[in-house]
């Protein structure tokens, strides 16, 4: 990276030199030299961020600097920086003083490549502003945290981010934000707030056009949290990153709750309880390495097909272990992730939200090299039923895949929606509708495999034939019915004497794939071991799938 | 192949569970690593062994000097008793054993040749030379090597050196299976129905087999240790078995004579320790249960046997003594019996030496068998009467092997012991070993490196102590040689680069071209065993050139990254590796060669055990590996830049969520399978919760002891409710 910077610096020097020559008649040589020196000085300051002392302080906290993060995230030598000379424009509270101005302000922006593919990046820089810390105030961030956190958002800072986002949208390449910011810069007042809004607007404009990924690598509080929330994926770094609207002290004063930063908005909270973040990583290095890995699954924009990477795993590989994976007793659980691992390429599965609403499994994998989105009910957790959280988790994932041309593969083993007051009061109807809506709306190739239960309304929801599933398979163990045999018999044969016989009859009739197959609701009953081969073959055919929807301004998903 | 793992067969289940289920049980016992291993001095080795034996009479004149014609733990064991008796000792050793423990313990040591046993420990001429040189008056042969070699005994007799063991004729008579069986019959010892003669050909074998009735066992007359043994269930198998066994016998023993006998289904292997003197006295010192075997080799022994009653024991003992008297047996020996489920017992063979498993008998009888052997050899009559021999408590022995778990535990694993600490601080523990930290495990010798014996007032206590002792037994091998380590690093880094290159390999996307980074040399930093190695890798097609710590290696493979098994050639050496897992963060698990520290636990002995002569081999494979996963190398590979930045990452305190089990969903508890105080293994079922008509099995997140149970069968639990706490 350093080499690239040197090259860029040399290029800039040359152009400055050229303009200097053009103005030679009027200017003195010394002037050009002094400009050169100033350029050099500014670059050096910009590259150093807040100075070695601040870099060391950052390292001591187990965090990397903005530039180090970029150098790890991008291919070596590929980073092209923009706006290195931008400075903030605030004149109040002594901010105009030179010592309070830093070239580049508190964010590093630019473009680069990950495994050769274009990406736009901004990386917020906490350390450049350390000497300002006593001045930096966020209305939502209590005083005691200031000594630790800086990197506040100024108008200039926001402008830099907006600039690369605009270009990313026009070019059609993803944006990755590495967030590490103390919030709005109070000295700038409304200009800082305007900066946030400018970013939010671009997040929304870019939504569904280019993939947007946020990696939270430090504090992110107050208004700042909404930018990550608007992006497609929010990842966090364990122990060093926090996301919350208001900090623990404000919480204490308002609601009288005692809570630590970690409990309130740490990686664990957001990946297990709130579902705000999609995944958490061990530390900066681990997070950035994983982000590179994750990036490989994504298309560059909605104009591009799902990427196809070289694949060493034969597409027609039979998976014999799948023939016995579903237990004979229909009440016994098994791990859906095992099925996913054995079906996809090289057992590689990037799970999204692995610790939240675990009764549904979603994530990215590849089939014959092509990225696919996988949705599966997880019989191991809460029997794989659909509830509020799992519906929302599934719906958002399905919509992302649909927006970015990623085919969907759905593995169904669902006993129904979770009953109970908690769920009804929580709005399971409204939230369950989201998943239904998302699957129905999706026009990407949709392949569905019913591994065991597909009961009731949940059967319809899980990418059924009726919601335009392109290929729907059933394993021989599939049971597609309105409900389980026992419940059904209790209703149909109420007061009937021979309940057991009736139950057996019901099982004989419905607890198998035939009722659906004879009606054409599943395209075929397949041997589980052939699942991979069948799906790969289908995806090749469906690659050219085209669906036209009637014109509308936009659809209205039940939010 | 320089891997070392240690397999310990243990009988630990019951003691830990606090109850005694009759069925087979397996339980893990983990080795814990202790950071500081104290240096084992000779004194330490000596005082730490508590031989539960009676004292000796210092006025009783004995030998001045004894040569121990053996190595390893048994040599050390014999030397200890000699020291106790005030006898000077001479060790013999091969050149690779020059600094081994038995050499250090002995007063004198003589090198008898190079490493191969045929040139050293079996080299009679050199040993005789050593005896002459050191003027040893007697020789203790230990077990194995020359212990049952009549030629050796004869040589010694010719030189007027006393062989501490039985007379030559007893060795000879009992060494031949056919002769020993005839002798046993004569002494009215129960023998297995069969043909007492050499079988000439396959057709005769079939005829005899039909007479005896199937199943039959075909075995080599000169055999032992399971070699040349076959079970036949019909004529066809008899013919095959005859052919294979005679080939095997010919190649293993140079003697292809075979015999046939009835195969005893579900047999137990129980042996009686006998002790005779030169005055016609003989005692039986109770039995040892040796039914837990692997490939017909004993791994766990205990005394007494849980299976025998007083009458059977006495009957067996008396027959054993009768046999000993019949051959004028004048030393410690062992009569092996097979006992069927109805407690019928049949003579199998007699071992005319000190057995590996003799310590369990010493523990329960209080005798020092080596001391008695020496006394008897000197010509003294036995000091004890049969009525003096009792059973006090219970003793269990586990043999600790250095073996390669990934060659089905079949091949010895070699290497240097980096950490070794015996659990001698625990009560009732005896360790017979011939190793110390830093010892080399050599390919030339038996992979059994030590014996762990525990003793208690009853079986439960002995087993409990075994479990504790195994937990406290620290054995760590230092596994890879430098060149092997370099190979591993080279393969790992080539794999890493191959994965990186593949990640850039996209199908042509015309809208926006992929511009691959041009990296000629991959500077990588690989962490293995907490040591960081700098590696530079470059590739030309499928050939990777890797510079590891200064040496250059060429790595070639097809690099099929989807295949679990990868055949790699490193500078022409073929290696098969498995990349078992790979994380984006740089962690990679690679299976390479066969090295790991592994503790295996075998099944409970009381009712089920490995059938000695069984057809089905599955049971053999059912031992469980615990501790480290076998032979896995965990490496962390990062680019140089990432590795530099990784230094700033903080060490994380490990969060312990595994000790608390919470209900993941609302439901009804159907069954709880543990109670406070129970030991549970990771992954063991703790309770079952039914939710939405599905039974979900809750398992332990770690191995430990149950601290408290907060639910009962039938309870309704909510999400996040505490179910069980582990300690």
From TrEMBL, chain A:
Location of the CoA carboxyltransferase N-terminal domain: 32-310
EC code: 6.4.1.3
InterPro entries listed in its UniProt record: AccD/PCCB (IPR051047), AcCoA_carboxyl_beta (IPR034733), ClpP/crotonase-like_dom_sf (IPR029045), COA_CT_C (IPR011763), COA_CT_N (IPR011762)
Pathway: Metabolic intermediate metabolism; propanoyl-CoA degradation; succinyl-CoA from propanoyl-CoA: step 1/3
Catalytic reactions on record: propanoyl-CoA + hydrogencarbonate + ATP = (S)-methylmalonyl-CoA + ADP + phosphate + H(+); butanoyl-CoA + hydrogencarbonate + ATP = (2S)-ethylmalonyl-CoA + ADP + phosphate + H(+)
GO cellular component: mitochondrion
Keyword Ligase belongs to the record: yes
The protein's name in its UniProt record: Propionyl-CoA carboxylase beta chain, mitochondrial
Underlying gene: PCCB
């Amino acid at each position: 990276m350093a080499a690239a910077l040197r090259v860029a610096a040399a290029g800039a020097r040359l152009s400055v030199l050229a303009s200097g020559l053009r103005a030679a008649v009027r200017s003195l040589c010394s002037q050009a030299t002094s400009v050169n020196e100033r350029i050099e000085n500014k670059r050096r300051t910009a590259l150093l961020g807040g100075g070695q002392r601040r870099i060391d302080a950052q390292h001591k906290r187990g965090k990397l600097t903005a530039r180090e993060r970029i150098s790890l995230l991008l291919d070596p030598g590929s980073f092209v920086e923009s706006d290195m000379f931008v400075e903030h424009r605030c004149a109040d509270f002594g901010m105009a003083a030179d010592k309070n101005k830093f070239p580049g302000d508190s964010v590093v922006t630019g473009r680069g490549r990950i495994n050769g593919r274009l990406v736009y990046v901004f990386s917020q820089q906490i350390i450049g502003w350390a000497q300002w810390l006593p001045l930096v105030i966020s209305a939502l961030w209590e005083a005691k945290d200031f000594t630790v956190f800086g990197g506040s958002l100024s108008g200039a800072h926001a402008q830099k981010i907006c600039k690369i986002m605009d270009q990313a949208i026009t070019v059609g390449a993803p944006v990755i934000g590495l967030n590490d910011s103390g919030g709005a810069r109070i000295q700038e007042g409304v200009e800082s707030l305007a900066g946030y809004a400018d970013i939010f607007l671009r997040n929304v404009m870019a939504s569904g056009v280019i993939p947007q990924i946020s990696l939270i690598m430090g504090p992110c509080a107050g208004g700042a949290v909404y930018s990550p929330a608007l992006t497609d994926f929010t990842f966090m770094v364990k122990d060093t990153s926090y996301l919350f609207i208001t900090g623990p002290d404000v919480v204490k004063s308002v609601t009288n709750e005692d809570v630590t930063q970690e409990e309130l908005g740490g990686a664990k909270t957001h990946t297990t309880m709130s579902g705000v973040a999609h995944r958490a990583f061990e530390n900066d290095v681990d997070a950035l390495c994983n982000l590179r890995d994750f990036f490989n699954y994504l298309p560059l924009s909605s104009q591009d097909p799902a990427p196809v990477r070289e694949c060493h795993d034969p597409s027609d590989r039979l998976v014999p272990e799948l023939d016995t994976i579903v237990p004979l007793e229909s009440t016994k659980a098994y791990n859906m992730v095992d099925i996913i691992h054995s079906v996809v390429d090289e057992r590689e599965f990037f799970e999204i939200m692995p610790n939240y609403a675990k009764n549904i499994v979603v994530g990215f994998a590849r089939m014959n090299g092509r990225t696919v989105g996988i949705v599966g009910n997880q019989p191991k957790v809460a029997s794989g039923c659909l509830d509020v959280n799992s519906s929302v988790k599934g719906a958002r994932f399905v919509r992302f895949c649909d927006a970015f041309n990623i085919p969907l593969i759905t593995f169904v083993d669902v006993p129904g929606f979770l009953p109970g007051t908690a769920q009804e009061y929580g709005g399971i109807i409204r939230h369950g509708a989201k998943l239904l809506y998302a699957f129905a709306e999706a026009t990407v190739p949709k392949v569905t495999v019913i591994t065991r239960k597909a009961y009731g309304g949940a059967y319809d929801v899980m990418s059924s034939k009726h919601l335009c599933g392109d290929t729907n398979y059933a394993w021989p163990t599939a049971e597609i019915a309105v409900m389980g045999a026992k419940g059904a018999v209790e209703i149909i044969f109420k007061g009937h004497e021979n309940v057991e016989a009736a139950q057996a009859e019901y099982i004989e009739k419905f607890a198998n794939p035939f009722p659906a197959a004879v009606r054409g609701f599943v395209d075929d009953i397949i041997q589980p071991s052939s699942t991979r081969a069948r799906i790969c073959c289908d995806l090749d055919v469906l690659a050219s799938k085209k669906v036209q929807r009637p014109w509308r301004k936009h659809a209205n998903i039940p939010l | 192949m320089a891997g070392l793992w240690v397999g310990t067969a243990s009988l630990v289940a019951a003691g830990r569970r606090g109850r005694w289920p009759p069925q087979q049980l397996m339980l893990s016992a983990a080795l814990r690593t202790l950071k500081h291993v104290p240096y084992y001095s000779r004194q330490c080795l000596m005082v730490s062994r508590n031989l539960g034996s009676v004292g000796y009479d210092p006025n009783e004149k004995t030998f001045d000097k004894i040569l121990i014609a053996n190595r390893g733990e048994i040599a050390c064991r014999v030397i200890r008793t000699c020291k106790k008796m005030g006898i000077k000792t001479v060790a013999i050793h091969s050149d690779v054993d020059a600094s081994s423990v038995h050499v250090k313990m002995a007063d004198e040591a003589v090198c008898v040749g190079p490493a191969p046993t045929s040139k050293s420990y079996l080299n009679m001429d050199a040993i005789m030379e050593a005896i002459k040189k050191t003027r040893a008056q007697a020789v203790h042969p230990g077990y194995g090597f020359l212990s049952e070699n009549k030629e050796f005994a004869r040589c010694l007799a010719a030189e007027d050196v006393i062989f501490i063991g039985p007379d030559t004729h007893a060795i000879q008579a009992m060494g031949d299976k056919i002769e020993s069986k005839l002798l046993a019959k004569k002494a009215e010892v129960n023998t297995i129905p069969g043909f007492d003669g050499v079988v000439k050909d396959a057709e005769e074998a079939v005829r005899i087999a039909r007479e005896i009735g199937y199943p039959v066992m075909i075995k080599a007359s000169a055999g032992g240790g399971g070699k040349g043994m076959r079970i036949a269930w019909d004529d066809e198998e008899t013919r095959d078995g005859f052919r294979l066994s005679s080939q095997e016998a010919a190649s293993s023993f140079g003697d292809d004579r075979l015999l046939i006998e009835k195969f005893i289904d579900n047999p137990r292997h129980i042996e009686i320790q006998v002790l005779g003197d030169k005055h016609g006295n003989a005692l039986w010192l109770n039995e040892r249960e040796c039914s837990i075997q692997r490939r017909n080799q004993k791994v766990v022994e205990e005394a007494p046997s849980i299976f025998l009653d007083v009458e059977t024991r006495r009957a067996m003992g008396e027959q054993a003594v009768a046999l000993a008297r019949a051959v004028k047996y004048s030393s410690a020996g062992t009569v092996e019996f097979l006992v069927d489920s109805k407690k019928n017992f049949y003579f199998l063979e007699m071992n005319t030496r000190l057995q590996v498993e003799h310590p369990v008998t010493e523990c329960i009888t209080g005798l020092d068998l080596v001391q008695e052997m020496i006394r008897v050899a000197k010509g003294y009559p036995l000091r004890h009467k049969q009525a003096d021999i009792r059973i006090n408590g219970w003793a269990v022995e586990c043999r600790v092997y250095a073996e390669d778990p990934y060659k089905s535990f079949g091949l010895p694993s070699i290497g240097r012991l980096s950490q070794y600490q015996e659990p001698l601080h625990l009560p009732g523990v005896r360790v017979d070993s011939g190793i110390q930290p830093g010892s080399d495990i050599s390919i030339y010798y038996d992979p059994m490196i030590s014996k762990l014996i525990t003793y208690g007032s009853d079986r439960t206590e002995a087993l409990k102590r075994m479990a504790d002792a195994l937990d406290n037994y620290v054995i760590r091998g230092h596994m890879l040689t430098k060149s092997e380590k370099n190979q591993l690093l080279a393969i790992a880094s080539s794999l890493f680069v191959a994965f990186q290159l593949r990640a850039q390999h996209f199908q042509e996307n015309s809208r926006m071209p992929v511009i691959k980074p041009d990296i000629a040399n991959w500077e990588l930093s690989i962490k293995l065993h907490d040591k960081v190695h700098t590696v530079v890798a470059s590739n030309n097609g499928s050939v990777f050139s890797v510079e590891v710590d200064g040496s250059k290696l060429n790595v070639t493979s097809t690099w099929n990254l989807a295949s679990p098994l990868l055949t790699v050639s490193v500078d022409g050496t073929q290696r098969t590796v498995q990349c078992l897992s790979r994380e984006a963060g740089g962690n990679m698990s690679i299976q390479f060669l066969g090295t790991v520290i592994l503790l295996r636990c075998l099944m409970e002995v009381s009712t089920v055990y490995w059938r000695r002569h069984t057809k089905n081999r599955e049971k053999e494979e059912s031992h469980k590996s615990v501790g480290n996963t076998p032979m896995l190398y965990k490496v962390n590979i990062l680019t140089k830049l990432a590795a530099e930045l990784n230094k700033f990452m903080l060490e994380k305190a490990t969060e312990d969520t595994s000790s608390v089990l919470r209900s993941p969903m609302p439901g009804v508890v159907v069954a709880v399978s543990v109670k406070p105080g129970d030991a549970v293994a990771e992954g063991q079922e703790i309770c079952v919760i039914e939710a939405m008509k599905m039974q979900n099995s809750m398992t332990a997140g770690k191995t430990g002891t149950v601290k408290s149970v907060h639910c009962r069968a039938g309870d309704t639990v909510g999400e996040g409710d505490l179910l069980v706490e582990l300690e």
